[in-house]
Design goal:
Two copies of one chain form a homodimer. In chain A, helix 5 runs parallel beside helix 8, helix 6 packs parallel to helix 9 and helix 9 packs across helix 10. With 208 residues, chain A is mostly helical. Chain A is 70% helix and 0% strand. At the A-B interface, helix 6, helix 8, helix 9, helix 10 and helix 11 of A face helix 6, helix 8, helix 9, helix 10 and helix 11 of B.
Chain lengths: 208, 208
């Protein structure tokens, strides 16, 4: 019975992270993970291609992002859509699991190949968001930018959330991060150096 | 004499890109590259660890970014500093070499390992900018955000520049991209859905 429980994926993730943290990523086997989770290896491989994928959500993030974007009401502008999506992800995937994601981050940082895989996953997520936005009629450059912003804001906020112990939720930190982003990009082009660009030859942006 | 000419690096880059485009990345050897550039393999290895590095600027980007940030006047705010840096990079590294960078991009896109290397380079550049900003006293979250924005804006603008044939300079496209970024992030939180969040109970998604 237990292997059919709907939380099988999360139990496998927890068991794997605990084992990776205790005995190292390389030394941990799939049977050890399934034994600790009380599930079969068959169940494991229904959810994950290999033990490495447990650390990266088993490729679900790009598909989830694509669905959230496709299902959003047509009138939503891209950034509002993204903020709604980030809220959903923060609340359903991360909230309440801070210690587990801290361990996950430490394991990934400890291994060059895991770091590379992490970069590839971010890139795949970014690409899924970009394509989803283009399918909604967003221009290619804006779609690329908003996709990058989404992934950046999520990752910067995640690091903040994992570095702290306060009561602020991940979604609150995401909103803080977005506000910081607004402040940072709003500061350009009012700075003294860029105003100096006004005197540059044509083809340059004006002070505006 | 010729191998000491200050443009040795650029000549090696051009020769390598031409050969990669003509005969493929895998089939091209370092002696073929140096022969075409009229330089020695010793000169090649003073500039690049291997042929792959020719496609990625031989690790110079993070060091260049670190120097630009460290040398900038103390009063510059982070975004102004970044825009100045992007201008320097656009005008000294990219402008006038569009066809070569088009070929470079096509070669990188054609090979999974080159794409991974590209992601690692972006990550290393981002890290160098982040650390440079933190050394100037910028807060860690803002530094991480501004670093990500810098790399994102450069890459989105580069793709636009490479996809087109118009007269707009890369730096003009960078400024357009920054303006699009400002517009995109300014649209939040004024959107209808996000306004709805004000009425939502803490910690859960609104009607979205």
């Amino acid at each position: 019975m237990s292997r059919w429980r709907p939380d099988a994926r999360q139990r496998l993730e927890r068991a794997a992270i605990e084992l990776f943290a205790q005995q190292g990523f390389a030394a941990t086997t799939v049977p050890q993970i399934t034994s600790r989770a009380g599930l079969t290896t068959r169940t494991f491989f229904r959810h994950f291609a290999d033990k490495r994928e447990v650390l990266f959500g088993g490729d679900e993030a790009p598909g989830l992002a694509a669905r959230l974007i496709a299902d959003a009401p047509a009138h939503l502008d891209p950034m509002t859509l993204i903020v709604d999506g980030l809220r959903t992800v923060a609340e359903t995937r991360f909230e309440g699991r801070r210690e587990e994601f801290r361990e996950r981050r430490a394991i990934i940082r400890s291994d060059e190949r895991l770091r590379e895989r992490d970069l590839r996953k971010r890139s795949a997520l970014c690409e899924a968001i970009r394509e989803g936005l283009i399918s909604r009629g967003v221009g290619t450059a804006t779609a690329a930018l908003v996709a990058e912003i989404s992934v950046t804001v999520l990752n910067v906020a995640l690091d903040e959330w994992l570095d702290r112990d306060g009561d602020r939720t991940l979604f609150e930190i995401i909103l803080d991060t977005l506000a910081s982003l607004q402040t940072a990009v709003a500061s350009f082009p009012a700075g003294p150096s860029v105003r100096g660009h006004d005197n540059a030859p044509p083809g340059r942006a004006p002070g505006a």
